[in-house]
Write a structure and sequence with these properties.
Layout (H helix, E strand, L loop, with lengths): L3 H9 L5 E3 L6 E7 L4 E3 L8 H14 L1 E3 H5 L10 H15 L4 E4 L9 E4 L6
Helix pairs in contact: 2-4
Length: about 120
């Protein structure tokens, strides 16, 4: 597990790149990364550093984070625009730390799209 600063440096490395949402593969170009948030081209809402770190910790704690965890009634992101930023946050994490986190698309056996720790990291 990376430290907060190590994770944020990985996120900074995505500046200028495009990340794709897990389920629908929608492109989101990261136009900039500040100390507080990520700017996404053509979007007003910005995923915050705090939210990205929170989701990263949760995936390490739980092993997997589903869309229900991000947007449902018991959301780990407790603010009204989580629905708008949650999909981008998981795409950012899957791109920033691909050796730790993999995206999982919905299927017959997987009810919800998610991100999960890679098998070799699960204890």
């Amino acid at each position: 597990m990376l430290s907060e600063n190590e994770l944020w440096e990985r996120v900074r490395g995505l500046s200028g790149r495009t990340v794709y949402t897990i389920e629908r593969q929608r492109p989101n170009r990261i136009s900039g990364v500040t100390d507080e948030a990520i700017a996404i081209a053509d979007r007003a809402t910005k995923p915050t550093r705090e939210d990205i770190i929170q989701v990263y910790r949760e995936v390490w704690q739980r092993g997997e984070i589903t869309s229900e965890d991000l947007y449902g009634d018991q959301s780990i992101l407790g603010h009204p625009y989580a629905r708008k930023t949650g999909r981008i946050i998981v795409a950012v994490l899957a791109s920033a730390v691909p050796e730790e986190i993999q995206g999982v698309r919905r299927s017959k056996t997987q009810r919800l799209s998610s991100i999960r720790l890679r098998q070799n990291l699960i204890k």
